[in-house]
Amino acid sequence: MRVLSGIQPSGKLHLGNYLGAIKQHIQLQDEHEGLYFIANYHSLTTVQDADRLRGLTSDVALDYLALGLDPKKACLFRQTDIPEVCELAWILSTVTGEGLLRRAHSYKDKVAHGVSSSMGLMCYPLLMASDILIYDSDIVPVGQDQVQHLEMTQDMAGHFNNSYGVEVLKRPEVMLNDACIVPGIDGQKMSKSYGNTIELFDTAKRTRKRIMSIKTDSTPLEDPKDPDTCNVFALYKLLAEQDEVKELASRYRAGGMGYGDAKSALADVVERVLGPARERREKLTGDPDYVEDVLLNGAKKARGLAQLVMERVRKACGLVTGKNT
Ligand code: ADP
Ligand code: TRP
What we know:
Distance between the termini: 29 Å
Strand content: 5-15%
Bound molecules: adenosine-5'-diphosphate, tryptophan
Number of domains: 2
């Protein structure tokens, strides 16, 4: 099976991105053909500063490699190294009703949060559908917030195939991540737009400090506490081993433990998970040529796949005569 997913380089990646997306991408590389890309065309809808976008793009590549993406098993590449995705997005726009794009939750949500309502933002789902359909992807692992975009992708593939009377575009399946919504330090969904994230690769010291600032209620130290309503415990549960989770839950219920202790236990587990990756990341930062090679090799393979699909698409639409291919 061919698995494809993308992540926007629109800010420093955080624990929500790791637990809700990247971790699963990396696990899937062992059983499937993985294609993972850095959605830098998409980020132009929010990041319009060349140096910043370049920096964030290379950060995502470093993050994936440090967290365990193995370039021998999966392809990692930049979206912009496959220019054909813009061509397919245009073609999809000609078979997609305007109403479908206007109904997108993510578009409405971003506009409500102050992102400027450009045509690029509205057409985001067209480019995302193109990213997926151009590789004949079978499975697309995403978080709950992206499910509607996947349904739109399936619709667009269907509209294209119906319009031209041929099964050219393969309809992908969604793989919903079971890691629910990861809460931020204020208990809302962790998101870079809410300023409540725990970054993946801040220094160990700053990460611990950030964890110590997680919002908790004011139950006195000696009283029993409910682990199931606590933000600290919610994060702990996603990162610690099962027996550790059980043990911390009983310490909550027994009383006599302050939230400071729970936060400290969480900080230890976060460091256990991210510490070795931070070291790998530091080494990779010193070898930009290696990282660039990984991205270019990934793009070479992905572009080969994209060109095959584009040949079918152009032929189905009558964009080639047979002499101009
Ligand atoms: P942000 O909300 O910080 O801008 P993105 O929208 O760029 O994050 O998310 C990139 C990926 O990470 C998506 O697949 C999304 O489902 C996942 N993700 C982001 N935040 C969370 C979260 N708090 N919990 C679970 N998954 C998340
Ligand atoms: N829209 C996705 C997000 O914000 C990123 C993305 C772009 C993507 N193209 C994709 C995800 C294709 C999966 C498949 O998280």
